[in-house]
Automatic annotation (TrEMBL):
The lineage of its organism: Bacteria, Bacillati, Actinomycetota, Actinomycetes, Micromonosporales. Keywords: Hydrolase. Gene3D superfamilies: 3.40.50.880. It comes from Micromonospora halotolerans. This is Gamma-glutamyl-gamma-aminobutyrate hydrolase family protein. SUPFAM superfamilies: Class I glutamine amidotransferase-like. Pfam families: Peptidase_C26. InterPro entries: Class_I_gatase-like, Peptidase_C26, PuuD-like. GO terms for molecular function: hydrolase activity.
């Protein structure tokens, strides 16, 4: 029997409570990520923030950069907006993991914050508060409430192949990608917000702005597990974009 691929899932450190304990600093990640990885045939390994080294990647088959708090604007040379809430420990630990994963060409999926981290790692920048850019709160309607909006993907892209037939996704974020750096933008919301980025020069590197782990269609997570298991050839093979090419919206 073949071994389930091991998928590292980056985690939060937040005050939490259980049983008799209250406001205890805890390493945690929503169970939805673990459930999605398990349902796709993988084994989730929770990775707390740790920038001492990235040796754990030696035993992992894939990396899932989870959602969460904002990325520190210092990481992309911007002045902090008062509404930006960053977690420097996550930034340092996840960028260390991502740098090593890229060097090893390990399959990587970035979800929400994780997609934004991919853009920053590739030299890009972020919008620190999307409502200032798009003029509405539809991407994060209220605390703890997911939005929903139309989406379209670039023909011939990895995102388009993974999400074939999907024209709507969920949403919970107040920041977004302004400049993707060296990544190709391959998905957009109806208001132009970047919804998917990828690096076609790599075995599997995909960022999605929505939360597939909390969606009825978690195909991005399944695609990561498939790539990590070496079974990517069993999935539809999209035509690859030239490395470093950025699609304009009118090319999709």
């Amino acid at each position: 029997m073949s071994r389930r691929p091991l998928i590292g899932v980056t985690a939060y450190v937040e005050p939490a409570g259980w049983a008799v304990w209250r406001d205890v600093p805890a390493t945690l990640v929503p169970q939805a990520y673990v459930r999605a990885v398990t349902a796709a045939g993988g084994r989730a390994v929770v990775l707390p923030p740790d920038d001492a080294d990235a040796e754990v990647l030696r035993v992992l088959d894939g990396l899932l950069l989870a959602g969460g708090a904002d990325i520190g604007p210092d990481r992309y040379a911007a002045t902090p907006d008062p509404r930006t809430e960053s977690r420097p420990d996550r930034d340092a630990g996840e960028l260390a993991l991502l740098t090593a994963a890229l060097a090893a060409d390990l399959p990587v999926l970035g979800v929400c914050r994780g997609m934004q981290l991919l853009a920053v790692a590739y030299g890009g920048t972020l919008h620190q508060h999307l409502p200032d850019v798009v003029g509405h709160d539809g991407h994060r309607p209220a605390p703890g409430v997911y939005g929903s909006h139309p989406v379209r993907f670039a023909a011939g892209s990895l995102a388009g192949a993974v999400m074939a037939g999907v024209d709507r996704v969920n949403s919970y974020h107040h920041q977004g990608v302004a400049d993707p750096g060296g990544l190709a933008v391959t998905g957009w919301a109806d208001d132009g917000v970047v919804e998917a980025v990828e690096d076609p020069a790599r075995r599997f590197l995909l960022g999605v702005q929505w939360h597939p782990e909390n969606d009825a269609d978690p195909r991005p997570v399944a695609a990561l597990v498939c790539a990590a298991s070496g079974a990517a050839s069993a999935a539809p093979a999209p035509a690859r974009l030239a490395a470093g090419h950025r699609l304009r919206q009118d090319e999709a």
